[in-house]
């Protein structure tokens, strides 16, 4: 092999070796095969997803804040907790409206979920003996101190009537169960909690009559002796609609001269006491206040009397009075019975009175007559019917549509010579006493409970 041939062969070998180490050719980057175009959507998709999630979260937070937030007065303690609590009530109320509109279930039937959600089975413990009994056909829950060896001392007793607008509530709800146990243990007392029937299934006067029968049965000397109760130390008490029933029963018992056992005290906690004027200053000032806005209170009143929606519409407009009830408006004239400090910016205007057939106040004979019945509106009795009443404790709250009902009753009771303790909470709201169970436990509920029990201890 010649040198030239060797050189040529070596050159070919080197070229082949170089071509083997050479990287493979890259594909042409056309518009269809460009790596930038092909991979770009994969890089942008997570960004779009993250941005969408952020927008959704912000929207949900904004909606939640808008829905939860309410113009609650700064004076109210734990106002954000109250807003959150009330958002549940409002949500349930909206659901109840929708169900009623669609014909699925009536409004109060849906709202009754509140009662079911807090329902408990009352059971005995080491301090309190609990029994469920029937007094004259009405269910009751009886709380007694556990017996102590050889202790035969007679006990005081509290007949307690739960609230709930005559349509909701139960003596078996957790807050009422806890309150009854607290009264038993701190006062060494017997507590009789009444499970009266509710509207709209049972309109007025059924709830009142249930309570009245239980009280009459319990006040028999033989029954009091059975439960070791001192006949001279029995009180009737209730909150909201229960306060209404307690006041009405107290009045009725005093009108029965043959009644051998008398109540020693009545304790009314933010009671509802009249249905004639639903535009008092407190109804106007607190029309949108949490827990019990004016619309809900008016609905409670109308459902107590009838399921006819015409009454609800008339009550909302405060045009529901008839000639019979109009003669009693003098007993609920807030310009006369409400201290000036509570008038605020409001001026008194007498409620309109419907006249003639077809008027707003004469839809049905039953509801029309009920408006003037003092068993439904205890404020409607004359002064002569107030003078013999037992000493009273009346709790009212500034931010409550029922504030003026309680204050007017305080004024009238004092004018009639009845001993009255009026406890007004400047930062209070309706239902406050019942907010004692986590997560809706409020500081003001503890103060209310403590002051209420202290009064019972000193006056019963």
* Rg calculated over all Cα atoms: 35 Å
- Unreliable sequence segments: 2-7, 29-40, 357-362
What is the mean pLDDT?
Answer: 87
How far is it from the N-terminal to the C-terminal residue, by CA?
135 Å
- Estimate what percentage of residues fall within beta strands: 5-15%
Structure annotation, total helices: 17
Please give the number of β-strands. 8
- Strand order, largest beta sheet: 1-2-4-3-5-6-7-8
How many strands, what sense, and barrel or not for the largest sheet?
8 strands, mixed
> What's the helical proportion of residues?
40-55%
Any idea what the shape is?
globular
What sequence of helices (H) and strands (E) makes up the elements?
Answer: HHHHHEEEHEHHEHEHHHHHHEHEH
Structural class: alpha/beta
What would you note in describing this structure?
It is a single chain. Helix content is 44%, strand content 14%. It is built from 17 helices and eight strands. The longest helix is centred in the N-terminal third of the chain and has 34 residues, at 35-68. The radius of gyration is 35 Å and the shape is globular. The model is unreliable at 2-7, 29-40 and 357-362 (pLDDT under 50).
């Amino acid at each position: 092999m010649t040198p030239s041939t060797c050189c040529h062969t070596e050159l070919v070998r080197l070229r082949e070796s170089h071509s083997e180490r050479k990287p493979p050719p890259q594909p042409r980057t056309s518009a269809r095969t460009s790596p930038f175009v092909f991979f770009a959507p994969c890089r942008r998709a997570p960004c779009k997803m993250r941005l969408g999630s952020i927008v959704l979260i912000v929207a949900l937070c904004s909606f939640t804040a808008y829905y939860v937030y309410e113009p609650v007065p700064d004076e109210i303690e734990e106002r954000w907790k109250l807003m959150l609590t009330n958002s549940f009530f409002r949500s349930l109320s909206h659901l109840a409206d929708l169900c009623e509109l669609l014909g699925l279930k009536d409004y109060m039937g849906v709202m009754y979920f509140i009662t079911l959600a807090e329902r408990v089975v009352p059971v005995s413990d080491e301090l309190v003996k609990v029994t469920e009994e029937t007094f004259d056909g009405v269910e009751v829950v009886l709380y007694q101190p556990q017996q102590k060896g050889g202790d035969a001392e007679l006990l005081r007793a509290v007949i307690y009537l739960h609230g709930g607008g005559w349509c909701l509530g139960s003596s078996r709800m957790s807050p009422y169960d806890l309150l009854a146990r607290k009264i038993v243990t701190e006062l060494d007392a017997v507590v009789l909690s009444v499970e009266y029937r509710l509207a709209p299934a049972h309109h007025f006067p059924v709830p009142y009559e249930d309570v009245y029968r239980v009280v009459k049965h319990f006040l028999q000397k033989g029954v009091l002796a059975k439960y070791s109760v001192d006949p001279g130390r029995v009180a009737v008490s209730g909150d909201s609609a229960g306060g209404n029933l307690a006041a009405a029963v107290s009045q009725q018992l005093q009108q029965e001269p043959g009644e051998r056992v008398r109540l020693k005290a009545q304790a009314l906690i933010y009671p509802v006491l009249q249905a004639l004027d639903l535009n008092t200053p407190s109804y106007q000032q607190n029309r949108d206040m949490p827990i019990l806005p004016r619309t809900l209170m008016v609905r409670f009143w109308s459902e107590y009397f009838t399921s006819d929606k015409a009454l609800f519409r008339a009550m909302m407009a405060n045009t529901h009075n008839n000639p019979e009830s109009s003669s009693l408006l003098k007993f609920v004239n807030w310009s006369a019975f409400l201290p000036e400090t509570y008038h605020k910016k409001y001026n008194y205007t007498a409620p309109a009175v419907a006249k003639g057939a077809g008027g707003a106040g004469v839809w049905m004979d039953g509801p029309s007559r009920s408006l003037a019945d003092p068993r439904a509106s205890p404020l409607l009795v004359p002064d002569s019917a107030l003078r013999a009443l037992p000493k009273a404790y009346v709790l009212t709250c500034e931010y409550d549509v029922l504030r003026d009902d309680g204050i007017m009753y305080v004024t009238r009771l004092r004018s009639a010579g009845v001993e009255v303790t009026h406890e007004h909470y400047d930062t209070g709201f309706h239902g406050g006493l019942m907010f004692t169970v986590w997560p809706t436990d409020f500081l003001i509920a503890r103060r209310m409970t403590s002051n209420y029990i202290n009064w019972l201890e000193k006056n019963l």
